[in-house]
Specification:
There is one protein chain. The protein is α+β, with helices and mostly antiparallel strands. Helices cover 15% and strands 27% of the residues. It has a domain of 78 residues: SH3 type barrels. The protein is elongated and about 115 Å long.
C-alpha cells in the first residue's frame, strides 16, 4: 500500500514540473546569443629604467641629506647653526612633543620646567637648546618659552623661525 502511495505522489510531482517556467529558461538560454564582446589586450609593460643621480645630470639626489655648500661668498654660513656643538638632552625630541609644565625663579634667573616625551622633567633657561631644529631659547617667562629655530630649505639655505612653548595649565 505504501508503494502505491509513493508511486502516486511521484506521478503527481512529475506532473507539476511541466512547462510552467519554460519561457524563463528560454530567455536565459537565448540572452547571450547576440553578444560577441571583445576584451582589449592589456597594455604593454615597459621595463623599469632607474635614473642615476650624478654630476653629469646636475640634479641633487632626493634621498640623500642635503649639506649646505660653503663658498667664498661673504654671506655663506651667516645663518648656519653650529653643527659641531655638542647636543643637549632636549635636542633629540621634536619641539611639538615637549611641554612647559612649570616656572622657577632662582638666583635672579628664570627657568622653565619642561616635560620631554620620555616623561622626564628638565629645567631650561635662556641660552639652552631645545628641539630638533637647533632651537635656541631666547627668553623664558612665567607662562612661555620663546625659541629661535634654524631650518634648512630645499636649496640648502638656513632661515630663522620663531616658536614658543606655552605653559600647560
Amino acid at each position: 500500500m505504501k508503494s502505491i502511495h509513493l508511486a502516486l505522489i511521484s506521478l503527481l510531482l512529475a506532473g507539476c514540473v511541466g512547462e510552467e517556467f519554460q519561457d524563463l529558461r528560454d530567455f536565459v538560454k537565448d540572452s547571450g546569443k547576440d553578444m560577441r564582446g571583445k576584451i582589449p589586450p592589456p597594455p604593454e609593460v615597459k621595463p623599469y629604467e632607474p635614473f642615476a643621480y650624478n654630476n653629469e645630470t646636475n640634479l641633487s639626489d632626493p634621498f640623500k641629506m642635503r649639506k649646505p655648500k660653503l663658498s667664498s661668498d661673504s654671506r655663506a654660513g651667516i645663518n648656519q647653526p653650529d653643527l659641531d656643538r655638542p647636543k643637549e638632552a632636549l635636542e633629540e625630541f621634536p619641539l611639538e612633543n615637549i611641554r612647559m609644565v612649570g616656572y622657577l625663579y632662582q638666583k635672579k634667573v628664570g627657568y622653565a620646567v619642561v616635560r620631554a616625551p620620555d616623561g622626564k622633567l628638565h629645567r631650561v633657561k635662556t641660552g639652552n637648546y631645545i628641539g630638533m631644529n637647533f632651537g635656541l631659547i631666547k627668553e623664558v617667562t612665567d607662562t612661555e618659552v620663546i625659541i629661535k629655530e634654524m631650518v634648512q630649505d630645499s636649496t640648502g639655505d638656513w632661515s630663522e623661525r620663531m616658536s614658543s612653548l606655552k605653559l600647560v595649565e
